[in-house]
Write a structure and sequence with these properties.
The structure holds two protein chains of two kinds.
Chain A lengths: L1 H13 L1 H30 L10 E8 L4 E4 L1 E2 H10 L3 E14 L6 E8 L3 H5 L5 E2 L14 E5 H8 L9 E4 L2 E9 L23 E4 L4 H5 L4 E9 L5 H18 L9 E7 H6 L3 H32 L1 H9 L4 H38 L13 H25 L5 H5 L10 H37 L9 E7 L8 H16 L4 E7 L10 E3 L1 E2 L12 E7 L3 H5 L3 E4 L13 E5 H7 L9 E3 L10 E7 L14 E5 H8 L5 E8 L7 H11 L5 E6 H8 L1 H35 L1 H9 L4 H30 L15 H27 L3 H6 L3
Parallel strand pairs in A: 5-10, 7-9, 17-22, 19-21
Antiparallel strand pairs in A: 1-2, 1-11, 1-12, 3-11, 4-5, 4-11, 6-9, 7-10, 8-9, 13-23, 13-24, 14-23, 15-17, 16-20, 18-21, 19-22, 20-21
Helix pairs in contact in A: 1-11, 2-9, 2-11, 2-12, 9-12, 9-14, 9-21, 11-12, 14-21, 14-23, 14-24, 21-22, 21-23, 21-24, 23-24
Chain B lengths: L8 E12 L2 E13 L4 E5 L6 H8 L7 E6 L2 E2 L5 H11 E4 L11 H12 L3 H14 L15 H14 L4 E5 L7 H16 L4 E4 L3 H4 L4 E6 L2 E7 L3
The chains are: A alpha+beta, B alpha/beta.
Chain lengths: 823, 233
C-alpha cells in the first residue's frame, strides 16, 4: 500500500499540469460541497445553542379568517397563558426594543429586547459574568436592570469586569448592568416568515419586561413574542391541545376581542421558525453542488481515461510481470484518491474563505450565519466525499484499462487498445453527462436570474433613489408625550430642510420594505357590523406632512397632510388606492370617516382627506395591501401611537450619503444625547429587502458558472484528446484533399454532437429539476421555454469555443507529419 | 494545360532540405524528372535515399526547398495550402503502404470521402464510388467496415478511393509493403490492369520484383536520380 502511495505521488508529480488541473477541479467541487454542507450542518442539523433545544417552542396567535397568521400576543393574553399553561415548564414573553446609550462616549443606538425574567433559565444559557434577572425584577419600577451581550461589553466597555453592578444610561434612564451573556448567545434570533419580521437585529441589551398600565388594559394590542419549554415527555400535539383549550376560553371570556376572525394559537418548534424558511433554498443549493461534484467526477474520469491510454504500455508491462487485476486497480485508485484528498484539502480552505465572504455579504439575510463554522462533522463529511469522489472517478478508467491487449500494447509504438471505440464512447458519454448536468444548473440559475431581474423592475410605488433614511428614538423621560415629541420632529425637519441640497424631509414610523409592519383595527362611520363580524384591520403608518413628497408617491385624490394637521385640528387620514378599492368601491372615500374608538361611545372621528398610490410594503413580489396614514402630530390623539420612534427620510438633489454627517450634526446640535441609527439610503433598504433572493441567485449562479467551466474543460479535454487520437486520420483526410475548413467542421461537429446529446438529456432532466424552484420564482414559470432555449444555445456556443482551439490545432497539422503519426 | 508534348509532371532541379537542430539534411538534391500521361513509373532505391520525400512532393503533401514542379503545365511548387489541397483532391490519387482507411467509415464512405471534399453531387458520387469499387472487385463489400476486411481487400478499397475521383496520376507508396506475397501480387496485378486501361501511376517500392511491373524505373541514391531505365516489355 505504501508503495502504491509512493508511486501515486511520484506519478502525479511527474505530470504537474495534469495534477494541477485535477486538483483545482476537485477543490472547486469539494469546496462548494463543503461550504453548502457547512451551512446545512450549522443551520439545519446542529442543535440551537440552547439547553435541550428540541423542547423549545414558539406560540403565535392567528385570526385565520382575516388572513393574519403567526401574530404576537398582548400583555393580558401572556399573563393568562402564563397562569393557565401546564404543558410547558416555563413560558416567557419578549419584545424588540432599542436603547439610546448615553453617558461616557458617543451616544449610540443599540438593539435590545424586553424579556420575561424566566427567559434565560428557560433557554438554559448562563451568563459569563454576573447573573440574569430574578422573578421580582420585572414590571414598572422594578425593571432598571440590564443584561448585556459580550459583544457590546467588549466594544463599549472594553470587557471591563467592574461594569457588573454599575449603572449605564439608556434612553436617559439609569440601568444597572447585572450580567453579561456569552458571545455566542443570541435571542431573539431573526425569524423567517413571521408577520412583521420584527426581530431582525442582533440584540445586545436585555431588560426585564415591564407591562405598562395601558398595555395591561389593551387585550387587542399584540406586540410580544412568546416562547415556551415543553415539559419532559409532553409532545407538541399535547401542548397544541392545551393551547387550543386556553384560546377557546379567551373567546368565551372576552367575546368582544375575538369576534369572527377565526382566533386561535399554534405551537411551533423553535427550530422550524428559525430555519424552516431556509430549507428549500439550502436543499436547492445542496442539489446544485451535488451536480457540480458529479460534473467534476465525470471530468476527472475523462482525464484519467486519457492518462490511462497513455500509460497502457506501463500497465501491460505490469500485467506481463504478473500483476493481479486487484493490484492494478488498487494502484490506480490510490492515485485518484490521493488526487481527491489533495483537492479536498484545498476545497476545505476554499470553503472557509467562501463562508467568510458569505458572512460578510449575507449577515442580514441568513439567521444564525455568525454561528456557521467548519467543524469536525464538516471535515469528516468532506473527507468522506473526497474519498468517495476519488474512488468514483478513479474506478471508471481503472476498470477500463485493467486488461490491456498485451501483444499490441507491448509492441514498440503499438496501438493502445483502450484508445478504441469503447473507451471513446465512455469518454464521450461522460462529457455528454457533464453537459446535461451543467444545463440543469444553468437553467436553474437562468430562471432565478430572470426572476430576480423581473423583481427589480417592479415599481415599489415610490422612488427610493436619492433618499437617505435614519432612525431616531426619543427617550420617554425627556420626551414624555406628544407635546414634546411632535415639536421635536417639526423642528428637526425644519432644520434639515434648510441643509444645502435637501429637497424634502419627512418622518415615518415604518418604512416600506423595511421588514416591519403595524396594523390596527378601526370602524367606518355608517357601516354596521354583523354580530360576530370583526372590525376591519389594516396596515397603518404615522407620517409627517412631506412624506409622500419625499417618496414621490402620487396623490390620486384629495390632499396631502399639511403642517396645519396638528393635534388640535380635526383628525384626518390618507388612504391608499387598495384601501379605497376595498372599503369604498364606489369611489366615494374622500370625506368618509373612521374611528379607532368604540363607534357606539361618542368616538373621535378621523376624516379621509386624500388617496395616494399603492406602495408595496411587505415585499416587491407581494401585491400592495390596503394602508392608511395618519399625520404624526395627530396619531397619538387618534390611535394612541407614541410616535417617538421615527425614521427620517431626506430627499436630496445630490448623493444622499453625503448628507449623513450634516444630519447627525443637526440632530446632535438640537439634542446632544440623541443618537441617530441605521443611516442608509433607501436604495440600500430596497436592496436589503431582496437580499435573500439575491443571495440564492448569486450562489446558484456561481455554482452554475463552475459547472459551465468544468463542462468547458471537459469538452476541451475530450476534443483535444480526440484531435491527438485522430491525427493520423486527419492526415489521411488532408492527403485526400480535405481543406482546413473540412477538418474544422469534422472536429467541431464531434463536439456539437456531444453537446446535442448532453443538451437533450439535460433538458429532460431540467424539466424535473426546475419544479423545485417554483416557490423562488417571480413572474416566470419553472418551464420557461425561452430560458431553456437560451441556455441550450449558450452551451452550444461554449462547446464551439471549447472545441475551437483543438479544432484549429487540428487544421494546422502538417499532413506529412500527421500521416507519419502512429495509428 | 497538358497537351501531347508537355509532360504530365515535370520536376526541374528540385531540392529538399530538412533542418533539425541546426543540422541540414539534403533529402533531395537537384532532381529532374518528367512523367508523361499514361506512364507507369516506379521509384526505387535503398532506405533513406529520398523516395518517400519525392513522392510527398509529387503528391503536394510537401513543398520543395528549391526548383520547380509543374503539374499539367501549371507550376505547383509554391501554391498555398488550400490550392494544394484542391489539386491533391482533383489530380492525385494516393495509395498508401498502410492503406490508411478510416476505421469509423464503411468501405463505401471511405471511397466517397475525397469526392465529398470536391463538392460532387450525391448522385454523381454514388455512381463514381460504385464504379470504382466494382473496378477493384470490392462492390460486394461496400457496407463493411475496414476492420472486417483482409489486408489485400483493404488495399483494394484504398485503390478504389484513389481511382474514384479520376485523378491525373496515382501515387502509390510501397503499396504491397503491408501485404503477404499473394495479396501483394494481386494488388500489383490490379495496378497493371489500371495502367493498361490508361492510368498514370507512380509507385515507390524497394522491392525489385514489384519495380519490374512498371514501364520505367527511376533509381534514387542519396537524394539524386542515379538511373532512369525503361523496363523491357
Amino acid at each position: 500500500m505504501l508503495n502504491d502511495l509512493r508511486f501515486a505521488l511520484r506519478s502525479l508529480l511527474k505530470t504537474p499540469a495534469f495534477t494541477a488541473i485535477a486538483v483545482i477541479t476537485v477543490a472547486l467541487a469539494i469546496g462548494a460541497n463543503s461550504a453548502v454542507f457547512t451551512l446545512v450542518n450549522s443551520l439545519l442539523i446542529r442543535p440551537l445553542p440552547y439547553r435541550d433545544a428540541s423542547r423549545l417552542v414558539l406560540i403565535w396567535e392567528q385570526f385565520a379568517t382575516m388572513g393574519l397568521e403567526r401574530i404576537p400576543v398582548s400583555a393580558p393574553e401572556f399573563l393568562d397563558y402564563e397562569k393557565a399553561i401546564r404543558s410547558c415548564e416555563q413560558i416567557a414573553a419578549f419584545d424588540y426594543t432599542a436603547f439610546n446609550v448615553g453617558g461616557e462616549g458617543n451616544p449610540e443606538r443599540v438593539s435590545g429586547a424586553a424579556v420575561s425574567p424566566s427567559l434565560f433559565p428557560l433557554l438554559g444559557v448562563d451568563p459569563i459574568a454576573g447573573r440574569t434577572f430574578t422573578l421580582d425584577e420585572q414590571g414598572e419600577g422594578h425593571d432598571d436592570r440590564v443584561v448585556i451581550s459580550a459583544r457590546f461589553w467588549k466594544r463599549r466597555f472594553n470587557s471591563d469586569p467592574g461594569l457588573i453592578g454599575r449603572t449605564i444610561l439608556l434612553n436617559g434612564r439609569a440601568f444597572t448592568v447585572i450580567g453579561v451573556m456569552p458571545a455566542t448567545f443570541e435571542f431573539p434570533i431573526p425569524l423567517f416568515g413571521v408577520q412583521g419580521n420584527r426581530f431582525a437585529e442582533r440584540v445586545d441589551i436585555w431588560k426585564p419586561i415591564a407591562f405598562t398600565k395601558p398595555e395591561l388594559e389593551a387585550r387587542g394590542s399584540r406586540s410580544y413574542g412568546m416562547i415556551g419549554r415543553l415539559r419532559d415527555g409532553v409532545s407538541r400535539a399535547e401542548a397544541q391541545g392545551e393551547i387550543s383549550t386556553i384560546t377557546a376560553e379567551f373567546i368565551r371570556s372576552h367575546p368582544g376581542n375575538y369576534d369572527g376572525g377565526g382566533f386561535g394559537a399554534t405551537v411551533y418548534p423553535l427550530r422550524d421558525q428559525i430555519v424552516g424558511g431556509m430549507r428549500t433554498g439550502l436543499g436547492i443549493l445542496l442539489g446544485a453542488v451535488a451536480f457540480v461534484l458529479l460534473i467534476a467526477c465525470a471530468n476527472l474520469a475523462t482525464m484519467l481515461l486519457a492518462r490511462a491510454t497513455a500509460r497502457e504500455r506501463e500497465v501491460a508491462i505490469r500485467v506481463a510481470l504478473g500483476a493481479h487485476t486487484w493490484r492494478l486497480l488498487r494502484q490506480m485508485l490510490c492515485e485518484s484518491v490521493v488526487l481527491a484528498l489533495t483537492g479536498g484539502a484545498f476545497g476545505v480552505l476554499l470553503s472557509i474563505w467562501a463562508l467568510d465572504l458569505l458572512k460578510r455579504v449575507g449577515a442580514q439575510t441568513i439567521p444564525r450565519l455568525s454561528q456557521v463554522t467548519v467543524d469536525i462533522p464538516v471535515l469528516i463529511f468532506t473527507a468522506a466525499v473526497a474519498i468517495t469522489t476519488g474512488v468514483f472517478f478513479g474506478l471508471i478508467p481503472a476498470l477500463a484499462s485493467r486488461k490491456p491487449e498485451l501483444t499490441e500494447a507491448l509492441k514498440e509504438g503499438g496501438r493502445g487498445s483502450t484508445s478504441g471505440a469503447a473507451s471513446n464512447r465512455l469518454r464521450s458519454s461522460l462529457v455528454a453527462a457533464e453537459i446535461a448536468l451543467a444545463l440543469v444548473l444553468l437553467v436553474s440559475a437562468g430562471l432565478l436570474m430572470k426572476s430576480f431581474a423581473r423583481l427589480q423592475e417592479v415599481s415599489p410605488g415610490f422612488n427610493p433613489h436619492g433618499v437617505l433614511t435614519a432612525e431616531l428614538s426619543l427617550p420617554s423621560l425627556k420626551y414624555p408625550d406628544n407635546k414634546a415629541i411632535a415639536p421635536f420632529f417639526q423642528e428637526i425637519i425644519r432644520r434639515l430642510a434648510q441643509l444645502p441640497g435637501v429637497q424634502a424631509v419627512a418622518c415615518a414610523d415604518i418604512l416600506p420594505l423595511s421588514g416591519t409592519n403595524s396594523d390596527s383595527s378601526f370602524d367606518i362611520e355608517g357601516k354596521v357590523l354583523v354580530k360576530g363580524q370583526p372590525s376591519p384591520d389594516e396596515e397603518v403608518r404615522s407620517v409627517t406632512p412631506d412624506y409622500f413628497r419625499v417618496l414621490q408617491t402620487p396623490l390620486l385624490k384629495g390632499r396631502l397632510f399639511s403642517n396645519s394637521d396638528t393635534s388640535d385640528a380635526p383628525l384626518v387620514a390618507i388612504i391608499n388606492e387598495a384601501f379605497a378599492h376595498k372599503y369604498f368601491p364606489n369611489g366615494d372615500a374622500l370625506g368618509k370617516r373612521i374611528t379607532f374608538d368604540d363607534p357606539k361611545k361618542n368616538p373621535a372621528w378621523t376624516t379621509i382627506v386624500g388617496i395616494v398610490g399603492n406602495i408595496r410594503h411587505r415585499a416587491l413580489d407581494l401585491d400592495p395591501e390596503p394602508e392608511y396614514y395618519l399625520p404624526h402630530a395627530q396619531s397619538a390623539v387618534s390611535s394612541g401611537r407614541s410616535g417617538r420612534n421615527m425614521i427620517l427620510v431626506v430627499r436630496s438633489a445630490q448623493d444622499p450619503r453625503t448628507l449623513a454627517a450634516a444630519i447627525r450634526r443637526e440632530v446632535q446640535t438640537f439634542d446632544p444625547d440623541l443618537p441617530i441609527a441605521r443611516v442608509r439610503t433607501f436604495d440600500d433598504l430596497v436592496s436589503e429587502s431582496v437580499a435573500p433572493r439575491k443571495l440564492s441567485v448569486v450562489l446558484l449562479g456561481v455554482f452554475a458558472g463552475i459547472a459551465l467551466l468544468l463542462a468547458a474543460v471537459g469538452i476541451y479535454g475530450v476534443i483535444s484528446y480526440l484531435v491527438v487520437q485522430r491525427t493520423h486520420e486527419i492526415g489521411v483526410r488532408m492527403a485526400l484533399g480535405a481543406q482546413r475548413r473540412d477538418v474544422l467542421t469534422l472536429v467541431i461537429n464531434h463536439a456539437l454532437k456531444l453537446v446535442g446529446i448532453g443538451t437533450a438529456a439535460g433538458l429532460v432532466l431540467a424539466l424535473f429539476a426546475t419544479r423545485a424552484l417554483g416557490a423562488l420564482l417571480y413572474q416566470i414559470g419553472p418551464f420557461d421555454l425561452v430560458t431553456f432555449a437560451e441556455v441550450a444555445l449558450a452551451l452550444g456556443l461554449m462547446a464551439l469555443l471549447a472545441s475551437y482551439i483543438p479544432a484549429l490545432r487540428a487544421t494546422r497539422s502538417d499532413p506529412m507529419i500527421a500521416l507519419a503519426h502512429q495509428q | 494545360m497538358n497537351n501531347g508534348n508537355t509532360p504530365l509532371i515535370q520536376l526541374q532541379e528540385v531540392t529538399k532540405v530538412f533542418l533539425t537542430d541546426e543540422v541540414e539534411t539534403h533529402a533531395l538534391s537537384g532532381i529532374y524528372l518528367d512523367i508523361r500521361d499514361g506512364e507507369y513509373i516506379s521509384i526505387a532505391g535503398p532506405s533513406g535515399c529520398g523516395k518517400s520525400t519525392l513522392l510527398s512532393i509529387l503528391g503536394l503533401l510537401d513543398t520543395p526547398s528549391g526548383g520547380s514542379y509543374s503539374l499539367k503545365g501549371t507550376e505547383v511548387a509554391n501554391l498555398s495550402f488550400p490550392e494544394r489541397a484542391r489539386i491533391r483532391n482533383r489530380e492525385i490519387g494516393f495509395i498508401f503502404q498502410s492503406f490508411n482507411l478510416i476505421g469509423d467509415l464503411t468501405v463505401y464512405e471511405n471511397v466517397e470521402l475525397p469526392l465529398t471534399y470536391r463538392g460532387m453531387a450525391a448522385n454523381d458520387r454514388k455512381q463514381a464510388v460504385t464504379e470504382a469499387l466494382e473496378r477493384v472487385g470490392m462492390g460486394h463489400r461496400a457496407k463493411h467496415l475496414p476492420s472486417q476486411l483482409s489486408g489485400g481487400q483493404q488495399q483494394r478499397v484504398a485503390v478504389a478511393r484513389a481511382l474514384a475521383g479520376k485523378p491525373a496520376i496515382l501515387l502509390a507508396d510501397e503499396p504491397t509493403g503491408n501485404l503477404d506475397s499473394r495479396n501483394g501480387e494481386a494488388v500489383m496485378d490490379l495496378l497493371r490492369e489500371l495502367h493498361a486501361a490508361g492510368a498514370t501511376i507512380c509507385m515507390v517500392t524497394h522491392d525489385a520484383r514489384f519495380a519490374q511491373h512498371a514501364d520505367r524505373t527511376v533509381h534514387l541514391f542519396d537524394g539524386r536520380v542515379v538511373e532512369d531505365n525503361l523496363v523491357a516489355a
